[in-house]
Structures are given as structure tokens and as C-alpha cells.
Design goal:
The complex is a heterodimer. Chain A is an alpha+beta fold. In chain A, 47% of the residues lie in helices and 22% in strands. The radius of gyration of chain A is 58 Å and the shape is elongated. In chain B, strand 4, helix 3 and strand 5 form a beta-alpha-beta unit. The chains are: A alpha+beta, B alpha/beta.
Chain lengths: 835, 118
């Protein structure tokens, strides 16, 4: 016999042997339980049965992990148990039958050699039992007990194996058939194409899922109806029948035809379909079956392919253009990123020149009357470009010139820039032979022009409004700051770089009497023209209120009232109103929602945070209060708008910190301070918002001073102001200040008169304090005259009366009048205010 | 600072007195024109003129000269000049030094000055 292949896996064998042991154990227990002969050792049998049961359980539990050699070992163990049972049950027992079970198992599950091996072990172990138990009839019983299981086991188990193999193959085949049918149906149903079978009369006999999807009819609805009635457009009905009949009548048994024809869906819509139809002969009956696909997409793709093929000749050229276009895209984007029209045009011509490999490129810009003028050129103007540009503008066509008309190439290329139907400009480029422009260059420029035309138009509108707003804005700012004695003032206004963001910031400096000066810094919420005009109203209102003599808080309250009653929507403004009183070395301020002013004393900046209230125009009756601080000589006050400290994406506190840091490193001079702050805080491309800056320095009053004035009557008042301040600082009292000033005024008046009508002469005033005495010298470049006409010496009288000593020193190059007076302390020192 | 000194003229209907109120600072830059303005404002029918300097912050010898010549012009027309300069103010101090009261009386307030003319 040949070895059979392994039919069973270990799990099946394990399960079977577990059953075998369990059944054997049950049988053993049963034999003990029923009445039986007394020589049987019941206890031993019960123990053996329980042992077999335990083995059964172990095998069952571990059946998934069991190996073949485990099974062999268990079966050998079973043989031992059966043999022991035979021994304990005595010579009359029928337990040898159990060997049969082992034999059946071994022959069924194992290879023949292995099964015979087990039988050999059975034979030996039973021979041992018999030899011990019943030597007389041992041979006969052995032969019966071993021979019967051997023969029957062989026969039955091999037969079982054959039967089970047969059954397995049969069921496998049936399974395969079922699967195959399902697969076919599935294939047809999941086929992307409709599959339809017709009988010879055109009646639908099969209809797959794709057909349902394609035509909208379900299989149940379609089958039994004629295809012509269901999905063939009426006008093609006859053609359909003819074609089917022709196919059926054809000689070939497997005739196939492909054609394209229009079909009709359930909803009445039509589509071009492609059908592949075959004649099928099934047991003498003729059918027509076919696949139908929706050819719409395929036809479209085909059309596209054809179009592409048509363009293939142009493709090589197009690729070059594509490359250029990519470059151009970048250049246009770069150009459009420019904030100003000029910057944009400049960038554009430079890039166009590079991309086209042109000698020069020029953009012409049309004004309102469509007159062209050069907007920007790189590197210079194009010869004959103006004329050509005009032609392009007139025809509104992209064109080539200065070439051979046959080649359709030329040394000049021009395209109109259009926006909303208007010619906003012309873009022209030129090249020298052998470089010539062709159709691709024309295409390229046209592409650029499309994007640029509108952008230029927008930029021009913005620029115009920007310009108007900026002009208006500037007209509202003081064009010259007043000269204030003892104070140095500087201001800057930097309009926003972008579009129409300009307007809204304003500042003002106004002397308000008594030597005090009002500083204003404000920011109106509106931008552009609206913002600038609001600034105009606020500015004149503030000047009026301030000069009426209202205190700071009242002035701001009135401005708020003005804004609150404005009919316009959202007329909101922040504002800072600061009153500097240099004589008192003090500053008072009212803050309506504005960034705090910065006081710089000894180089160290401090934000004046007090008196902060709401912006103007927010509440009908807000409370505004004045706060005050000391402002020593040498201190500087800085007012600014948020444009200086606010940058997109940055915390305003960071901006304030930045400002303080920049102030620390900045020079003290107001002009230099402004320049330094603008240079370090405003981004290179310009601010996104307006920036206004106003600085005022309370000039330090030194022990010694020298000042020069033009020799004209108008110099007298500033000289007196300066002198009063210095005298106050030097510790003079109110009356002393008035009297010394009067005396010095006389000396200065003399100096001015000595200069006569000579232009550009100056006189010098110097002062010094030594201990409790001040000495003031007035030096001129003329000759001393004792008396002025009609003066009767009153000037000199005044000087002599008011001063302790008056010395006149005439010299060859001028006269010096020295005035001395000891200070008597009839007033406070520094805080003393001149009358 | 445009005009350092400002002149306000008041023609008093009832008593024929012209009151010229000076504010600001009076020095050589404004003395002549101020004198001219006052003289021009005084009609020959007026009985007198009062120069009110109670709010004038400063005067120098040019201003004083202007006052002296104004006194002469007014006197020559048989009209009276009175000036107002409260004591303790810089202007009064200057007028005191140059002995202006020899040319025209100095009063402490406008009412007493007008009353003297009337």
C-alpha cells in the first residue's frame, strides 16, 4: 500500500482521541457499575477510567497546541491503560475489544507503518498481560484479541478514509460550482459596462446592474420588454431592428459587431453609446448579447486628444512660452507687490526686459484724455516707441513692428493695458537683430498686460486719493513751527505708505499766552479724505477753544462735544493736549485715549500715564482731567501717534518698549531725536499707518549764555523772553526780572539802532551769574551814540537807574554795554515766574 | 508772534474821551505805529485821551518817547492826556524813572483818569 498523504491535521486527531478516551473511560466506569463477576478489581478499574478521563480532558484542553508525537504518546498510553484494565478485570473480561478502538484510530488517522507500529505495541503489551494472567489459553486469546482489531481496523479505517476523501472531493466540486456561478454573476453585475441579452425578437432576456445604472431601468422592469421600446430613441428603432436581424442572419455562428449609436435613458436624456454585440447560439436558440458603454467621456477624450494632436506642432513653442509665462507670473507678482505706482512700473519694465530678453522695455501711461506718456523705462526710452505705442493704443491690439511681415516677427512688440474697457497704458519692448519677437512674445506680453492693466488703474486711483489726502493733511499741519523762547520744537509727519491709508493724524503747536505753549497730537479714526477733513475741523476748533482761554480739560471736553454731535458715523478720535509752561518748569496734559506722551529726563524716558480717559466721540459727557508733571530744563517731551509704536502682529506694549529703547540711545536735540526714531522704528518700506511725531525740549538754562540776534526790532521780544527765562533760572525775583529785562532791552535797542540800515548785522547778548550778581553784556558792531533822536537820554537813564553798574566800552569794531546787578532775592529762585 | 502790542480804541460817546487800551509789549518795533494810531483816533472834538496801560506787560524808552510826543501833540490841540499804570507794575516803574508825570498825570485806573478829564 502506498502511503497516503496526511489528511488530518493534529487538531482533528486530538479531538478524536479525546473522544476515544472519554468513551473508553465511560465504558469502563459503566462495566464497574453494572453487576459483574467478583474477581474484578473494581478500584483499579475505576482509577484507570478516571486516568483515561483525565488524559481526555488534558488533550481536549490543549488540542490547539498538540503535535503528532503527542498523539502517538497518548495512544500508546491508551494501549497501556487497556492492557492494565485487562489484567485487573481478570481472564474472562471482554476488554480486549478496546484494542479494536485503538486499532481503528491508528489505521484511520496514521500512516500504515505507524498504525502497524501501534498494533505491534498492542500485541506485545497484551502478550505480557496474558503471560501473567492466563498462561494456558494465552496464544488463542492473544491471536483473537490482536488479530481481530488488526484486520478489522485495517479494513474499516481504510474504507472510512476512502469514503471521507470521496465526500470531500464531491463537496469541494459543488462549492466550486456555486462560487463560479456567483462570480460570473458578480462579474457581470459589477462590470462597468451594461450587459444585455436579447432574444431573436429583440426582447430583453438579461440585464445587469451596470445596465440599470446606465439606463435607469431595473432588471425586473427591463426583462421581457423589447430593447427598441425601452432604450432605443424612436428615430433609430428601424435601424436597430435591421441591425439585429442582420446579425442573426449572418453565417458566422459567433458574429460580432461594434457600433456607436445614440441611446435613451429612462429620464429621456440621450447619450452616445458604444455597443459590442455578438450573436450567441445556445442549444439551438439564437440570442444577441452585447456590452454597451457610455461613450460621452471617451468621445470627449478623443476630441481632446485630437485637439492636442492639432496643437502638437505648436507645442514646442508653447513650452518655451510656458517657461516664460512662469517667469512673467513671478515678475508680475513682484511688480504688483509694490505699493506705489512708480515702484510697480519700474519693477515691471525691468522684469519684462529680462524675461523677453529685450534691449529695452517701456510702459506708457494714459492720462484721462488717453494721452500717453512714459511711465517707466528700462534702461531708457525706445526709439520710435512713442509712435508705436500710440498705434497700439488706438487699435487696442497687441502688435509687432519693424520686421518682415512675412515672418510675422519684429523688433518691436507692444500690447495695450486695458482696464474696464479703457486703455490705461501701453507696454512696449524692443530688440535688435538677430533677436526678433514672435507670436509667443506677443502672447506673453498680453498675459502680463491682462494682469497689470487693472492693477495700474487701481494703483492710480489709490495714488490720486492718497495724494489728495496727503496734500490736505499736510495743509492742516503747521508748515512752520513757532519759535518759542527757551524751547526747541520739532515735528515730523510721515504719511502711510500704502494706498489710501493716509490722513487722520495731526499735531499742532500753539502759543497760548503767558509763555505757555499748547501741544496737540491726535489721530482721527477715519482715513483718506474723510479723515483729513475731520482733522481740519478738530484743529480749528481746538485753536479757537484754546485761545478763548479754556483750561486743557475744558478744551478737550468741548472737542468731544463737537465730535459727539457730528452727524457722521463713527467720528472717533484720540487726542493728547499738552500745555507746557516753561516758566514754571511744568507740564499739564489731558489724554483722550491717546498713547501716553513720553517725558525724557536725563536721557531716561518715562511715559506720562496719568489723566487717561476715553477717546473723543465715544461718550456724550466723559470726564477729562488734567494731570501735571515737572519738566525741568533739559527735559524733552515726545508726543506721537500709534503708527510709531504699532506694527501688524506685534503687541503695542512691545512697540512702546521699542520706543523707550530707541529714545534712550537717541540724541537730545529734538530734530535729531525725530530723525532717529523714524529711522529706527519705521520699517524700510514705509509705515502701514500715518506716523506723526512732535518733540519739545525745555532748553537747559546755563550759568553762562551767549546768544546772537539779527539787528532788527523784531529780535527784541525773543531776546527778552530768553532773558526772563534765564534770569528766573538764575534766581532773580519777579521785579528784578522785569527791571533787568527793561535795562537790557534798552541796550539792545541801542545796538539795533547802531546797526542802522546795514543788512545782515547781528548783535550778541551774553549773560553770566557769579554768586548773587548777574552780568549781562550787549555787544554790537556799530559805534556808540549817546542819544537817540527824541530819546533825551532816557534809555541810558533807565539802564543806570535799573542796574547797579552800567559800563559802555566803545571799541574799534563795536560797542559793548555791560550791565551788572546784585540779586536781592525778592522772589523764589527757579520757579519764580516773570510778570 | 505777529503784533507784539495791540491797541483797542474806545470812543466814549457821552463825555468826549477816547480810551486807548494797550496790551502786550511796547518796544521800538511797535512804538511809532502805536502812537500814530492813537493820535489818529482822537478827533479834534474830543476833550481828552486816556492811554490805559494797566494790561501792558512791558514798555521801554521808545514807548516812553512815544508817550511824551503824544502828550505834546494832544497838548498842542488843547486836549488832555492821561495815562493809566497801576503801581507796582513794570510799566509804572519805568514811567516813574523817566518822570513821565511831568508830561501827563498817571492814574491807577481808567475811571479816575476819565473822571479827571471830565
Amino acid at each position: 500500500m502506498r502511503a497516503l498523504p496526511e489528511l488530518f491535521d493534529a487538531r482533528v486527531k486530538a479531538r478524536s482521541i479525546a473522544y476515544l478516551f472519554a468513551t473508553g473511560a465511560a465504558l469502563g466506569l459503566l462495566t464497574v457499575a453494572v453487576p459483574h463477576m467478583s474477581e474484578v478489581n473494581d478500584l483499579a478499574l475505576v482509577l484507570l477510567a478516571l486516568g483515561a478521563l483525565a488524559i481526555s480532558a488534558i488533550v481536549w484542553v490543549s488540542r490547539d497546541r498538540i503535535r503528532d508525537w503527542h498523539i502517538h504518546a497518548v495512544l500508546l498510553g491508551g494501549t497501556v491503560i487497556v492492557s492494565l484494565a485487562n489484567y485487573y478485570a481478570g481472564p474472562t473480561t471482554l476488554y480486549p475489544v478496546l484494542y479494536m478502538w485503538a486499532a481503528l484510530y491508528a489505521f484511520y488517522f496514521f500512516r500504515l507503518a505507524e498504525a502497524l507500529g501501534h498494533m505491534a505495541f498492542v500485541a506485545i503489551s497484551y502478550a505480557v498481560v496474558l503471560a501473567v494472567q492466563d498462561p494456558e489459553s494465552a496464544v488463542v486469546r492473544w491471536l483473537l484479541a490482536v488479530g481481530t482489531p488488526l484486520v478489522i481496523g485495517l479494513l474499516i479505517s481504510r474504507m472510512l478514509r476512502f469514503i471521507s476523501g470521496l465526500l470531500g472531493r464531491l463537496s469541494e466540486r459543488a462549492q466550486r460550482l456555486v462560487e463560479s456561478e456567483a462570480r460570473t454573476r458578480m462579474v457581470l453585475d459589477t462590470a462597468p459596462d451594461a450587459f444585455i441579452t436579447l432574444d431573436r425578437h429583440g426582447v430583453i432576456r438579461s440585464w445587469n446592474a451596470a445596465a440599470q445604472r446606465l439606463f435607469g431601468w431595473g432588471a425586473a422592469e427591463a426583462i421581457g420588454k423589447t430593447m427598441r421600446a425601452l432604450i432605443v430613441p424612436p428615430e433609430f428603432g428601424d435601424r436597430h431592428d435591421e441591425r439585429r436581424n442582420a446579425l442573426i442572419a449572418s453565417e458566422s455562428p459567433l458574429a460580432t459587431e461594434r457600433f456607436e449609436v445614440e441611446f435613451q435613458r429612462r429620464d429621456g436624456s440621450r447619450f452616445p453609446g458604444q455597443a459590442t454585440v455578438s450573436k450567441v447560439d445556445i442549444q439551438g436558440e439564437v440570442f444577441v448579447s452585447g456590452f454597451i458603454t457610455d461613450a460621452t467621456e471617451r468621445l470627449r477624450q478623443q476630441a481632446e486628444r485630437e485637439a492636442l494632436l492639432r496643437e502638437q506642432a505648436a507645442r514646442a513653442e508653447a513650452e518655451r512660452v510656458a517657461e516664460l509665462v512662469a517667469g512673467l507670473q513671478a515678475l508680475v507678482d513682484a511688480a504688483l507687490a509694490h505699493r506705489t505706482l512708480d515702484g510697480m512700473l519700474r519693477e515691471l519694465v525691468t522684469q519684462v526686459r529680462g524675461v523677453l530678453d529685450a534691449d529695452a522695455a517701456t510702459i506708457y501711461i494714459a492720462d484721462e484724455s488717453e494721452q500717453l506718456s512714459v511711465g517707466s523705462s528700462a534702461p531708457g526710452d525706445i526709439t520710435g516707441g512713442d509712435e508705436f505705442a500710440n498705434t497700439v493704443a488706438e487699435t487696442r491690439q497687441a502688435m509687432l513692428a519693424q520686421g518682415d511681415p512675412r515672418t510675422e516677427r519684429g523688433g518691436l512688440v507692444g500690447v495695450p493695458l486695458l482696464a474696464e474697457g479703457e486703455v490705461t497704458g501701453v507696454l512696449v519692448a524692443c530688440a535688435t537683430p538677430p533677436r526678433e519677437f514672435g507670436g509667443e512674445d506677443l502672447t506673453l506680453l498680453r498675459l502680463a498686460a491682462e494682469r497689470v492693466g487693472l492693477a495700474i488703474a487701481h494703483a492710480r486711483v489709490y495714488e490720486r486719493e492718497h495724494r489728495i489726502a496727503e496734500t490736505l493733511q499736510r495743509s492742516l499741519l503747521p508748515d512752520r513751527l513757532p519759535e518759542l523762547p527757551g524751547l526747541d520744537v520739532a515735528a515730523r509727519y510721515l504719511p502711510a505708505a500704502s494706498e489710501a491709508e493716509v490722513g487722520g493724524d495731526w499735531y499742532d503747536v500753539l502759543p497760548i499766552g503767558g509763555g505757555a505753549v499748547g501741544l496737540v497730537m491726535g489721530d482721527v479714526a477715519g482715513k483718506g479724505l474723510a479723515g483729513a477733513s475731520m482733522v481740519g475741523r478738530l484743529r480749528s476748533a481746538l485753536r479757537a477753544y484754546a485761545l478763548e482761554g479754556h483750561d486743557g480739560a475744558r478744551v478737550v471736553e468741548r472737542l468731544n462735544r463737537l465730535l459727539w454731535t457730528e452727524a457722521e458715523a463713527n467720528p472717533m478720535a484720540t487726542m493728547l493736549y499738552v500745555i507746557v509752561d516753561p516758566a514754571a518748569n511744568a507740564v499739564r496734559w489731558v489724554n483722550a485715549g491717546h498713547p501716553a506722551p513720553l517725558m525724557i529726563t536725563g536721557g531716561e524716558p518715562t511715559f506720562l500715564e496719568g489723566a487717561a480717559s476715553v477717546p473723543l466721540g465715544v461718550l456724550p459727557f466723559p470726564t477729562y482731567e488734567e494731570a501735571s508733571a515737572r519738566m525741568d530744563p533739559g527735559s524733552t517731551l515726545l508726543l506721537y501717534t500709534d503708527g510709531l509704536v504699532e506694527r501688524p502682529g506685534e503687541n503695542i506694549d512691545d512697540g512702546m518698549g521699542q520706543l523707550a529703547a530707541r529714545v534712550r540711545e537717541a540724541p537730545e536735540d529734538p530734530d535729531a531725536l525725530c530723525d532717529h526714531l523714524l529711522a529706527t522704528l519705521v520699517p524700510a518700506g514705509g509705515a502701514t499707518d500715518d506716523v506723526a511725531l512732535l518733540t519739545l525740549r525745555n532748553l537747559p538754562v546755563p550759568d553762562h549764555f551767549t546768544a546772537e540776534f539779527p539787528a532788527e526790532p523784531e529780535s527784541l521780544a525773543p531776546m527778552r523772553s530768553m532773558l526772563r527765562r534765564w534770569l528766573g533760572h538764575a534766581g532773580a525775583g519777579e521785579i528784578e526780572i522785569a527791571e533787568i529785562t527793561t535795562a537790557c532791552g534798552e541796550a539792545a535797542t541801542n545796538a539795533i539802532e547802531h546797526a542802522g540800515m546795514r543788512a545782515d548785522t547781528r548783535f550778541e547778548v551774553s549773560g553770566s551769574r557769579t554768586g548773587g550778581e548777574v552780568e549781562i553784556a550787549v555787544r554790537d558792531h556799530g559805534s556808540w551814540r549817546e542819544e537817540r533822536p527824541g530819546d533825551h537820554g532816557r534809555g541810558l537813564d533807565l539802564m543806570r537807574t535799573l542796574m547797579d553798574t552800567v559800563a559802555v566800552e566803545p571799541g574799534p569794531r563795536g560797542t559793548t554795554v555791560s550791565l551788572r546787578r546784585a540779586l536781592g532775592g525778592n522772589g523764589g529762585p527757579i520757579d519764580g515766574r516773570p510778570g | 508772534m505777529d503784533d507784539l502790542v495791540e491797541v483797542q480804541i474806545e470812543q466814549r460817546e457821552g463825555d468826549g474821551v477816547v480810551v486807548a487800551r494797550l496790551t502786550g509789549e511796547l518796544d521800538i518795533s511797535g512804538a511809532d505805529s502805536t502812537g500814530q494810531r492813537i493820535a489818529d483816533a482822537v478827533p479834534s472834538s474830543a476833550r481828552g485821551v486816556v492811554v490805559d496801560m494797566s494790561e501792558l506787560e512791558f514798555i521801554d524808552s521808545s514807548g516812553v518817547s512815544m508817550l511824551f510826543s503824544l502828550a505834546r501833540r494832544v497838548g498842542s490841540r488843547r486836549q488832555e492826556l492821561r495815562v493809566v499804570a497801576p503801581d507796582g507794575q513794570p510799566v509804572a516803574r519805568v514811567l516813574d524813572i523817566v518822570e513821565f508825570d511831568k508830561a501827563a498825570p498817571v492814574h491807577a485806573d481808567v475811571d479816575s483818569a476819565v473822571a479827571e478829564i471830565v
